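INFO  loader      accepted 1 record
INFO  loader      residues=83
INFO  predictor   begin
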Amino acid sequence: MLQLYNSLGRTRAPFAPSDPTHVPRYMFGPTPYSYAPIGNARTAVIFDVLARVLRAQTPKRTDARNITDIDDKITAAAARSTS
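INFO  predictor   done
INFO  writer      dumping tokens
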């Protein structure tokens, strides 16, 4: 049985999807700015490891990832770094 760490309750909790035949997952992607922090890599690695575990346990998965939109602060920082 797959268990995941519940950071809110600080305990391990059994993973019980509402539909055991299909597990949808979503990962917030990085915001593209300056240097990428190590946390961006950690998120991608954990997402991949969990995908491999679920692939062995569930018949169908749907994975979605995004890259956060660039906003005015990021555009302004990019302009400052090139001038």
